Amino acid sequence: MIEFSNVSLSYGKNVVLNNISFKADFHEKIAILGGSGEGKTTLLRLLLGLVRPDSGMVVIDGQDITHMPESKLRDMRLRFSIVFQEGALFDSLSVRENTAFFIREYTDKSEEEIETRVRELLRVLGIEEAIDLMPEELSGGMQRRAAIARSLGGCQPRMMLYDEATTGLDPLTAHNICNLINDLSKGKPPDRVGFIIVTHKVTDATKVAERYMYIKNGMIAFDGNLEQLRNAENEELRRFTDELHTAEQYE
Ligand SMILES: Nc1ncnc2c1ncn2[C@@H]1O[C@H](COP(=O)(O)OP(=O)(O)O)[C@@H](O)[C@H]1O
Ligand SMILES: [Mg+2]
User: What is the pLDDT at residue 56?
Assistant: First the structure.
């Protein structure tokens, strides 16, 4: 369980998150929606203890991580696989070495076991044939797959975190990544590995998520399911989800 209680964070005069509270279970499929600069990535960083709130509390699995020292955060972070939007892959490492990175870092597997695990992950992600390629040689979609493979390397996540997983991809590739995100979220609640996908692409979010949170002006302006999202009366949210309503007309 993830709990944010009255969390606020500012950078100088820039109030990024203003007193936000929510609870989420690890098996949930959540999309955090919001325009550019609204604090979506910051929220993921707070959740992992990569930044600390100015006030409020972040609790993961009953443990208050708000001021937990860096050395103790590691175990908590291993509950999550994390695909960050920026610099998802190490440019100078092959797909094999990228995928092996966190396996080396967080486990004491032998080289042979690492190779087996790398191949297994790349097979699951559908890019085994790219094992010897460098990131620059991959298409955008394959880069995302490799980044997801790498994020899964070091842990057996309870929940997967994706920051803008489909941003910058053409619609078909984005659709395929959405399918992959669904496939990776295995099992049934409460054992299911859930996810939080942070995105400004509403139509991609609706292919995967069951719960939607919309961040505006540092606050959670909406939190509900797809039907509630479609019927939301919040003007800004309606503008934001416009493509959803337009897409509906052609369904
Ligand atoms: N390390 C930082 N120092 C100063 N300002 C930052 C930092 N990280 C993010 N911000 C600012 O915080 C706001 C929210 O950023 P971010 O969480 O990246 O938004 P989003 O992911 O929704 O696009 C933006 O105004 C951004 O410029
Ligand atoms: Mg962001």
Answer: 98
Q: Which ligand is nearest to the CA of 34?
A: 1
CB 118 within 8 A of CB 107: no
pLDDT score recorded for residue 156: 83
The domains found in the chain, sorted by start residue, are 1-79+161-225 (3.40.50.300), 90-156 (no CATH)
Question: Is the CB of 217 inside a 6 Å radius of any atom of ligand 1?
Answer: no
* CA 42 / ligand 1 centre spacing (Å): 6
For ligand 1, atom 20: residue with the closest CA: 37
| Residue 90: alpha-carbon gap to chain centroid | 19
pLDDT category of residue 187 using cuts at 50, 70 and 90:
confident
What Å distances lie between residue 191 and 129, 185, 187, 196, CA to CA? Answer: 32, 10, 6, 16
The strand order across the sheet containing 194-199 reads 80-83, 159-163, 194-199, 29-33, 211-216, 219-224
For the chain, give the mean pLDDT: 91
Average pLDDT over residues 99-104: 94
Q: Using the mean position of ligand 2's atoms as its centre, give its distance from the Cα of residue 78 in Å.
A: 21
Instruction: Using the structure block, give the residue that is written with the tokens 């992992």.
Output: 48
Query: Separation of 165 CA from ligand 1 center, angstroms?
Result: 18
* pLDDT above 80 (res 246): no
